[in-house]
Amino acid sequence: MLDFVQQLVSGVALGCVYGLIALGFVLVYKATEVVNFAQGDLMMLGGFFAFTFIGMMGLNYWIGFAGAVAAMALFGMLAERVVVRPILGYPQFSIIMATIGLGYFLRSVAGMVWGTDDFKIDTPFSQGVLRIGSLVLAYDKLSVIAATIILCTLLYLFFNKTTLGTAMRASSENMLAAYYMGIPVKRVVSVVWAISAAVATCAGVLLAPITFIHSNVGLVLGLKAFPAAVLGGFGSIPGAVVGGVLIGVIESMAGFYLAEGWKDVAPYIVLLAVLLLKPEGLFGLHVRKKV
Amino acid sequence: MRFLFKTDYEDDIRLFPHSGYVVSYGILLALLLIAPYVLSSYLMSQLVFVCIYATVGVALMILTGFTGQASLGHAAFLAIGAYTAAYLQKYNVPFPVYFLAAGVLTGCIGALVGFPALRLQGIYLVIATISFAFIVEEILARWESVTNGNEGMRVKTLSLLGVTVPRDSPTFYFLCLAVLVLTIVGTLNLLRSPTGRAFVAIRDSETAARSMGINVALYKVKSFAISAAITGLAGVLFAHKLSFISPEMFTLQLSIEFIIVILIGGSFSLHGAVLGAIFIVMIDPFLTYLKDDMPGIIAGIAATFGAGPATAGNIQSKVAAFASLNGLKGAIYGIIIVLFVLFEPLGLYGRWLKIKLFFQLFPLYKRATFKRQKIYVKSERNR
């Protein structure tokens, strides 16, 4: 029983990271119908920025964190301006390819700039564990869970309660109609990319003590975040986090109870099953087309 | 300029629209046939890889280019073909039998993947094929009694009708070339058959195709099966060329390379698949060239423009250091993909068409001929 709870908590913590990356997918997808295959690499880059500020320049953790988030938000806008904006409105396949290309580029450049070693950031939560009875919970895992809850709530409120959020939802439903209604669609898309890169950075920094930062971490985790996003229904913010947590728990349980090798495939088997049985995901909207 | 007046249906579906095609393809084929006696062994080896990649490119073109079903899992089909060959070879099965067996097996698995794909659209399909590829990769690594797990499998030298064909011999190259040419001709014939027309109809509008009485589900599964089967055949050749296979050769990276083949070559044309294959295989020799010769050349240019020997040497070492950076290949891939998507979505073959049209229509060429239209699709979720 104790093992089970222990696995559950570490699964939830890992799942929250997947959820945070999936949140980035969902934000961009919600606003522009673009699936950003470079999301994991944005996370990796955010982690490296934070490492540069904190580990190499010796700034305070929180200042470095904020700096990395700000830098990545700008970078997200830049990426949107250069890569995505010219092809908005073209078939999805082009956009998928463009973001795959962007991901390749970021991964290689990060490898060139920071090298291929593993890096780690010392965080205020690195040391110390919380003991409840004989249950041992590390602070860095708890911090991930807490941060996910906060970010998710903020984003949910942002999308549903603010004008900008409403504008984003409108431009995702029908970009052309949103233009006609006077929504500055280009600026909206820019902001969405900034937010999504910032969320990815949070994931990267929070993850740093758990999986370390290296240039390929984005690819590995980004691909795990896909099942999370699909499971929750692409385009649903709570769905992304719940999907991420489910994937994390499934992975951690499969790693503990099943034979070796199941750990890596279990998320994808679940994903295929979900796609077969309920393609719109757990929280996805099922909208019928009107003829 | 040559005008083609099509007066009946036969003109429309002819394999070679006019005699120019016969002449130019004849010359190309002749050049390819004498290539092994002219080129260096390194380039020959690259040419074999071009043939294999082009075969996979054609297969993927049937699925993605002509039926509109994106797949990022073709490395898995290649792996299944390669492993079938390696496994059957252990029991002394002759080449023609395991070659066909690999094709049939991957075709069946492709059809099985096609069934779930029926309900999936766009991005969901891409994700489903990625997960399929991951699962196959993991099975290859874990099913040790058959695949030997992570240690990989040796592939014995190919023996065809009692004659051994080493992997760097001209005969092996001719075999790969023959498979490629047969695949291309077969695909061309497929595309002018009712099946191929149904594929294109499904790509252009599924709803329209369905209302024309096309059994969309059947043709989607067919397209998956055919594409997978051809990829499986290419997998057999791939295994023989490498002479050693292990699960980590068939990763997502390879699937992405195949997608790059059709993206850079140009969607919707078989020429594109071949051009893309040439492009992707030749990146490696190009990088070697960049590493070995470029620094000297650039230093030479600097010297002729009046730089002293010290500056020239400095430039040379800097360029050499840049060219031998670790991730340069990945960065080049990334930049190339993005640039092609942004500026030349029709790919290399599209560029060739533009150049050709420019000269044909010389004073009257309009750039807008090839203009893409933005469609601003409504939400895919509501489809």
UniProtKB/TrEMBL annotation, chain A:
Keywords: Amino-acid transport, Cell membrane, Membrane, Transmembrane, Transmembrane helix, Transport. The chain crosses the membrane at residues 12-29, 49-75, 87-106, 142-159, 188-210. One of its GO terms (cellular component) is plasma membrane. It is found in: Cell membrane. It is a multi-pass membrane protein. The keyword Membrane applies. One of its GO terms (molecular function) is transmembrane transporter activity. GO terms for biological process: amino acid transport. Pfam families: BPD_transp_2. It comes from the Bacteria. Belongs to the binding-protein-dependent transport system permease family. LivHM subfamily. This is Branched-chain amino acid ABC transporter permease. It comes from Bradyrhizobium arachidis.
UniProtKB/TrEMBL annotation, chain B:
The keyword Transit peptide does not apply. It is found in: Cell membrane. It comes from the Bacteria. CDD domains: TM_PBP1_LivM_like (cd06581). The keyword Transmembrane applies. Keywords: Cell membrane, Membrane, Transmembrane, Transmembrane helix. It is a multi-pass membrane protein. One of its GO terms (cellular component) is plasma membrane. The chain crosses the membrane at residues 21-39, 45-63, 95-115, 122-143, 172-191, 212-238, 258-282, 294-312, 332-350. One of its GO terms (molecular function) is branched-chain amino acid transmembrane transporter activity. InterPro entries: ABC_transp_permease (IPR001851), LivM-like (IPR043428). This is Branched-chain amino acid ABC transporter permease. The lineage of its organism: Bacteria, Pseudomonadati, Pseudomonadota, Alphaproteobacteria, Hyphomicrobiales.
